[in-house]
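Q: Give me the 3D complex with biotin.
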Amino acid sequence: MPNDLTREAIRPRLTTRWLGQNYLYERELGSTNSRLEELAGQGAEHGTVLVADRQTEGRGRGQRSWHSPPGLNLYFSMLLRPDWPVGAARPVSLAAGVALAEALEPLLPGTPVLKWPNDLLYEGRKLAGILVEASLHGESIRHMIVGIGINVNEQPFPESLADLASSLSLAAGRTFDRGEVLALVLTRLEHWFDSLDRDGAAPTIARWQAYATWIGQSVSVRNGDAEVRGTAIGLDARGSLIVRDEQGRQQTVLSGDLARGD
Ligand code: BTN
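A: Here is the predicted complex, encoded as structure tokens.
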């Protein structure tokens, strides 16, 4: 069955060495991130992948919800138990963004864009989102849950999302086999997680910036009531955004919502 995400359907298609060797599938979950956090507490192994066909309480960044209807899209979370310091959480989310961009680009008629801190956009609309949640132990990471939602075959979107969201099928004008997309994405995710482990964050950040075509342009970043406006210079070694503000000062932005300036 082409659209099947069960363990029996996916395991034979995986070409990864460690990511998804423990592959779990549920027809319905509140949130794959929340459920995998519980499984992490019960000792689930590094590289565990948990996929749901549908989420009833899918979560996005900043307390937002993630629209997760059945049968159409991909919702999954990965458990990482790296031997990294606390500062590694941001590079992990950047590595996930690069992996998504590289895996999905060949399926699209044009090039996707990575928007800081980590949305994958196609023609200005959101194709995929990443939610990384780290469990800390002092100055080190106990484990990380990397949750990914990819809009695959959904179209049309509900009216409230129509101007904001895109899907592979909207962009490419055909439907996709979710299992094939998942296998492609997991291969690139493993590659970039291995790169972080082996070479640190610099190659990930360089590759990420290549998909961030808004760098060099005028942007605004809002964080609660605070707003920084200026020219996006790029990311620093930790993945924070550098903006040259209207007074010519370089500001390091740790988090916020990015929009085009004018
Ligand atoms: C965002 O862009 O706001 C992040 C969206 C992340 C959504 C995924 S879907 C699978 C995983 N489980 C969740 O509850 N959220 C993430």
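A quick observation: The radius of gyration is 18 Å.
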